[in-house]
Amino acid sequence: MSEEPILKAFGKKMYSLRVELKLSQEQVAERAQLDRTYISSVERGQRNISLLNICKLATALEVSPESLLKNLGEYYE
Fold first, then answer.
1. Neighbours of 33 (CB within 10 A)
2. CA-CA distances (angstroms) from residue 45 to 11, 62, 76?
3. Nearest to 23 by CA among 68, 46, 57, 74
4. DSSP assignment string, 16-51
């Protein structure tokens, strides 16, 4: 199984949550204590991120960590 589709789906979901909250990548990065370029690469599906960073991003996006992973199939191309 290729990892790329799931990484891209996660990135799309993260992007949609960020846009829904009307946050910039910089704002999410600041809230999550991560670099803006890291946020960008996650949204593009270029990073296989750690559990710790999933939790940081969930907090920054005001959702639970499990909700970031739930229903990723809806975000597949």
1. 10
2. 5, 21, 11
3. 57
4. HHHHHTT--HHHHHHHHT--HHHHHHHHTT-----H
Q: Are 57 and 68 in contact (CB under 8 A)?
A: yes
Q: From CA 32, how far away is CA 14, in angstroms rounded?
A: 13
Token pair, residue 27, equals: 């704002």
Q: Which residues contact residue 64 at a Cβ distance below 8 angstroms, ignoring those fewer than 6 apart?
A: 58
Averaged over successive runs of 10 residues, the pLDDT of the chain (77 residues) comes to 84 96 98 98 96 98 95 80
Query: Is pTM beyond 0.85 here?
Result: yes
In whole angstroms, give the CA distance from residue 24 to residue 74: 23
The DSSP call for residue 3 is: S
Please state, in angstroms and rounded to a whole number, the distance separating the CA atoms of residues 29 and 44.
15
